[in-house]
Amino acid sequence: MKTIIAEKPSVAREIAGLVGASDKKDGYLTGNGYFVTWAFGHLIGLGMPEDYGISGFDKASLPILPNPFLLTVRKVKKDKGYTADIGALKQLKVIEQLFKQSNSIIVATDAGREGELIFRYIYEYLKCNKPFERLWISSLTEKAIKQGFDNLKDGKEFDGLYQAAQGRSRADWLVGINATQALSIAAGNGIYSLGRVQTPTLALICKRYLDNKDFTVKKYWQIQLTHHKAQVDFKSISATKWDEKQLADDTLKAIQRGATATVTSAETKSVTEQPPLLFDLTGLQKEANKRLKLSAEATLNIAQSLYEKKFITYPRTGSKYIPEDMWAEIPNLVRALQNREDCKQALTKIKWGRFNKRIVNDLRVTDHHGLLITDKVPSVLNADENKIYNMIALRLLEAISQACVKEITDVSLQVLHYDFTAKGCKIQEAGWRSIKGSFTDDGEEPVQELPELHKGDELAIKEAAVLEKQTKPPVLYTEAGLLSAMETAGKDIENEEERKALKNIGIGTPATRAAIIETLFTRNYIQRDKRALIPTEKGLQVYGLVKERKIADVAMTAEWELALHKIENNEADAGMFQKEMENYAKSITDELLQTSIGSTNQPKLTCPKCKNQQLIIRDKIVKCPDEACNWVQFRTVCGVQISIENVTSLVNKGKTSLIKGMTSKAGKKFDAYILLKENAESSFEFEKNKSRKRNGK
């Protein structure tokens, strides 16, 4: 007998159907010489400090450097502690029995770093020594699975992948556990979570937020002219930016007294825009955030669902290319879209026989190729699945289309002694841009078409106006912007040699970036303000403490990603990497234990209910330490975090300032004051025309 182990039940069922294992049992299927079973994601993980006999946060125990690392069954939170997940224990027993009854194992967990880790941790925990082969596939279509079974690979070929996954897992443990405990002990006031990737990501958000907040907006003025020639109206703008409106107004008056514009130069050049490559996961998440306002995690979940329904290939890919041997399948995928209403218009723009092979590059394909649709085209999807599927389908059509060729014209004019410029664009070959019919990128102003202009031409001025403009601060990160920053973290490194080495290395991986962002939300370090990501008070406090330390250094985290990449390709030693992480854990622990946290910045507030105790102020709640009194006020009310200033105002004056942008249970936005009633319970007070009251706890 052979046991096939998949990552989740849905995938196991697909595989079981193909190998003839149709007899359903508790926790597996069997038949035709196979057992087909599954994990539920990470059934086994690294033990926590309590598994090593260390309970609570104890300065004397730091740094904690496990030797060896212990593996434990997945745990769930119960009351004040953690206990083994009953479902995980039950499934693990099933897997153990099947492994014992089998001669060999076929690993069918997701074909990537985390999928490899899921199996290997189970294999190691169960002390199994049966030989195993790897099913390595990029889609769950019947054809792909059959091809995968025809080309099973020796499990040893993936030892490098496992060592990289294990190295990542242990590094996150060493840094996360030690740094979190050290900073929390130093603070003595709540838990301050730090992590190998989450902290540099938080640093990116905080730095951008502070740069934006501290930016001084300056007004300036330019003059815009409207001209007419050969039945074409077009505009030019002054090269001068006046700091004083009066100077711009005076210039405008001079121009309006009958001045003409003289063309001093007119240069035309042809620009070729190559089509975009296929989506990798990060690219899809960025596009979905820009166009659909979907979070990175939501996009990943939708893509995973489409993958499991066999409509797209493996989504957790870091590549935008396909290998040469897949090129022959592309026409079939394009033909499959002919039955899809949403793609019919775009398909009329495709030039059969002239497909662009730019996406073919064997050297740039990592574990998996770029995101593709499969030949199984969906007929019914929910709204979000439909939009994500269309994004992937249309990107394929764009990628195989010809380049877009534009004629760009730059014109310089002179009016009196002032310089003006005009820019024009004419589409010569629409190419890939005809697929969606969009000829400019997001944020770009549509470029006007110009008449034929030559040096020395005199142009009348139809209209002239002063435009008021202002300098713009660094834009706050959206999830799309943050994903870009994480993906290209290496490009902003000051040291030139480091920057070159880390040019294409980001922080996190395409598969983990969404989870990192969600972790920052869970930790109450960041929040959404419309589409922007901004730090909370706690997030800014943590950033203030660690911004000068290595743990917040994007360059170092990118170096670690590079090291893991080398381990995966058997170019670096996993043991050396772990030693380096242990040394780093020691140094960051020492650094953080000496940190002085300004808990003195917290106001001293007396409990409004018992009038005796000083309130404990945490990032999520404000509470009275006296259990008999038990007064508590949550810091997040209807989706908005209450600032320390408003907490102080509520306790001392009985009322906050007007809090804007709260969300009711029905999903409606509202503004209200929070006030304390005589019994110290909080409630809402609306502006006079909205006098409803509700409990604010």
Automatic annotation (TrEMBL):
Q: Is rRNA-binding one of the keywords UniProt gives this record?
A: no
Q: Name one GO cellular component term.
A: cytoplasmic replication fork
Gene Ontology BP, a term: DNA repair
Q: What class does this enzyme belong to in the EC scheme?
A: isomerase
Q: Where is the Topo IA-type catalytic domain?
A: 158-589
Q: What is its EC number?
A: 5.6.2.1
Q: Which reaction does it catalyse?
A: ATP-independent breakage of single-stranded DNA, followed by passage and rejoining
Similarity field: Belongs to the type IA topoisomerase family.
Keyword Hydrolase in annotation: no
List, in alphabetical order, the Gene Ontology terms for molecular function in this entry.
Answer: DNA binding; DNA topoisomerase type I (single strand cut, ATP-independent) activity; metal ion binding
Keywords recorded for this protein, A-Z = DNA-binding, Isomerase, Metal-binding, Topoisomerase
Q: Which PANTHER family match?
A: DNA TOPOISOMERASE 3-ALPHA, PROKARYOTIC DNA TOPOISOMERASE
Q: What is this protein called?
A: DNA topoisomerase
